[in-house]
């Protein structure tokens, strides 16, 4: 009896550890912002745009994974429900990057940068 409970707890802990990653949102205002020139602002905006696209793809994959695990868990194998990702790391990181993009756009405008910055892309 004790072995079965211990085994079940071990499986549940291991499965839940695989369920998703913790979000690591980027701060909107960063310590080095006062030292950014126009080219550095534009470079960061472009890097952030690439990261937002990557996170959008990750978010879509997590939705598909959750649908599959939910279906398998409800119909076939209950422990599969522990593999679902409820942390929403990609969505939280995307929202933080969009806020950062807005902040960088305002900073670019205040510094009269020549190239206009693209508007923040909405989450998909």
What keyword list fits this structure?
124 residues, mainly alpha, 61% helix, elongated
Quick structural gist:
The protein has 124 residues and is mostly helical. Helices cover 61% and strands 0% of the residues.
Write the layout of secondary structure elements.
Layout: H1 2-17, H2 38-75, H3 89-110
Helix pairs in contact: 2-3
| Tally of helical runs | 3
Share of residues in helices: 55-70%
Average per-residue pLDDT, rounded, comes to 78
The H-and-E topology, N to C, reads as HHH
Inertia-based shape: elongated
Percent strand equals under 5%
The first-to-last residue Cα distance is 48 Å
Any overview of this molecule?
With 124 residues, the chain is mostly helical. The chain has a domain of 77 residues. It is built from 3 helices and no strands. Helix 2 packs antiparallel against helix 3. It is elongated.
């Amino acid at each position: 009896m004790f072995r079965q409970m211990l085994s079940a707890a071990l499986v549940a802990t291991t499965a839940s550890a695989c369920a998703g990653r913790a979000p690591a949102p980027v701060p909107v205002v960063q310590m080095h912002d006062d030292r950014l020139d126009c080219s550095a602002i534009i470079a960061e905006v472009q890097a952030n745009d690439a990261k937002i696209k990557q996170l959008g793809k990750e978010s879509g994959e997590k939705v598909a994974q959750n649908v599959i695990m939910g279906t398998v868990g409800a119909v076939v194998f209950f422990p599969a429900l522990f593999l679902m990702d409820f942390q929403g790391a990609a969505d939280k990181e995307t929202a933080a990057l969009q806020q950062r993009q807005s902040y960088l756009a305002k900073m670019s405008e205040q510094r009269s940068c020549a190239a206009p910055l693209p508007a923040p892309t909405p989450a998909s």
